[in-house]
């Protein structure tokens, strides 16, 4: 019962950040997403792609299945903005994000509470013995903060 | 045991955000904090004061004691930036934050894991029966996201 409550608290925090991101995306035109969030800083489209790539990366990390859009890492994780690489459109990235989130949501709902406290796939069985906090639920806590950080920047694209 | 682990995960997420904030503050001069984080947006000093006020507000919310700097709410929570109100200096705000954090840290360490799942003071006993996630630990989850959001903006003050 208690584990169920923990999981609910953390997933609710993730869902809140995800909803904030969409509230914002729904207000921003594709042209606005091409703007820098502040002079000389990352553009909206880059931060959007970055969030899509990082969210996609949660699938194998949580053992929910293979990456759906691993190719995005090259542009949006390993390279900085304005690297000269061709980027997918905002429409494509938003549609990718929705697809990833459908798989994530289904997997979130199907994972029994206790299993959220099992190790994520980037930690070894051996290390997990002494570092039991490196579990699946912890990924959600960290990724919620990561999303909040970038939503704080994307909000500057609003007029 | 599980409750202890969960508390540790959430406090660690808060501590990470708090450390990120200080890593940034330590790199920013008082002059830089007077700058807008993006043209027309909140200045660094306002966001700093806002974070100090909101962190101070956690004390009564978590039943850790009275507010230490309640007067900051007037300038940094109820009013927007550039309201014309006189502001404390960055040095004063940073010192306030350190004092608040000392009380918070001590209280964090002294609170038994199970008590983190008791209601925070802004929810009634009645509502808590049906909304058990409105507990003290949930405040920490939410405030970590809130801090990450504004750290994402403050980082734009760096050259």
Q: What is shown here, in short?
A:
2 copies of one chain form a homodimer. Chain A contains 7 helices and no strands.
Notes on the structure:
The structure is a homodimer of 159-residue chains. By secondary structure, the first copy, chain A, is an all-alpha fold. The first copy, chain A, has a single domain, classed as Four Helix Bundle (Hemerythrin (Met), subunit A) (Up-down Bundle), CATH 1.20.120. The first copy, chain A, is built from 7 helices and no strands. In chain A, helix 1 runs parallel beside helix 7, helix 3 runs parallel beside helix 5 and helix 3 runs antiparallel to helix 7. Chain A is globular, with a radius of gyration of 16 Å. The N and C termini of chain A lie far apart (45 Å). The mean pLDDT of chain A is 97. The interface between A and B is medium-sized, with 33 and 33 residues.
CATH first level of chain A: Mainly Alpha
State the oligomer.
Answer: homodimer
State the helicity of chain A in percent bands: 55-70%
Q: Quote the distance from N terminus to C terminus of chain A.
A: 45 Å
Largest sheet descriptor of chain A: none
Helix/strand-derived category of chain A reads mainly alpha
For the record, the CATH architecture of chain A stands as: Up-down Bundle
Overall shape of chain A: it is globular
CATH superfamily of chain A: dinb family like domain
Q: Which fold name corresponds to the CATH topology of chain A?
A: Four Helix Bundle (Hemerythrin (Met), subunit A)
Q: Provide mean pLDDT of chain A, rounded.
A: 97
- Parts with pLDDT < 50 across at least 5 consecutive residues of chain A: none
H/E element sequence of chain A = HHHHHHH
């Amino acid at each position: 019962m208690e584990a169920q409550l923990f999981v609910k608290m953390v997933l609710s925090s993730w869902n809140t950040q995800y909803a904030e991101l969409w509230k914002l995306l729904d207000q921003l035109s594709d042209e606005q997403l091409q703007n820098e969030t502040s002079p000389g800083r990352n553009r909206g489209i880059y931060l959007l792609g970055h969030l899509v790539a990082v969210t996609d990366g949660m699938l194998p990390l949580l053992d929910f299945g293979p990456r759906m859009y691993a190719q995005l890492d090259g542009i949006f994780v390993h390279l900085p903005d304005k690297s000269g690489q061709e980027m997918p459109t905002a429409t494509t990235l938003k549609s990718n994000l929705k697809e990833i989130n459908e798989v994530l949501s289904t997997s979130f709902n199907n994972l029994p509470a206790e299993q959220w406290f099992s190790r994520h796939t980037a930690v070894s069985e051996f290390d997990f013995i002494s570092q039991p906090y490196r579990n699946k639920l912890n990924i959600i806590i960290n990724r919620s903060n990561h999303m909040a950080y970038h939503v704080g920047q994307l909000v500057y694209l609003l007029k």
